[in-house]
């Protein structure tokens, strides 16, 4: 959990209050049917919750094999190296 300074917490609280005040003023200016429709859409969105990313592949799908290409060369044995017996 991130800790914030007292000043940061106060700034965020006043910012949230100001945003709520602006939203209330905006809702008061639009017609009542539009405001009700907006409130309903916001309620549905909040009930729906955050978007969940779908899985990359369907369950049970085998991963794709690597693409064909040049194979790595085998290690060369040095012909001039002395061999131990």
Summed up, the helix count is 2
Structural class label: mainly alpha
Low-confidence stretches: none
Give the proportion of residues in helices: 40-55%
Beta-strand content bin: under 5%
Q: Quote the average pLDDT.
A: 86
Distance between the termini: 64 Å
Please compute the radius of gyration using only Cα atoms: 32 Å
Q: What is the string of helix and strand elements?
A: HH
Number of strands: 0
Please give the largest β-sheet: none
Q: Which shape, going by the Cα principal axes?
A: elongated
Provide a compact summary of the structure.
With 85 residues, the protein is an all-alpha fold.
Main features:
mainly alpha, elongated, 85 residues, 0% strand
Fold and architecture overview:
This protein is an all-alpha fold. 48% of the residues lie in helices and 0% in strands. It contains two helices and no strands. It is elongated and about 90 Å long. The mean pLDDT is 86.
């Amino acid at each position: 959990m991130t800790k914030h300074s007292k000043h940061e917490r106060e700034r965020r609280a006043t910012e949230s209050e100001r945003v709520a005040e602006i939203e209330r003023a905006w809702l008061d200016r639009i017609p009542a049917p539009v405001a009700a429709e907006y409130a309903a859409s916001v309620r549905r969105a909040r009930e729906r919750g955050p978007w969940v990313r779908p899985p990359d592949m369907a369950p049970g799908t085998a991963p794709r094999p690597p693409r064909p290409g040049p194979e790595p060369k085998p290690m060369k044995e040095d012909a001039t190296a002395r061999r131990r017996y």
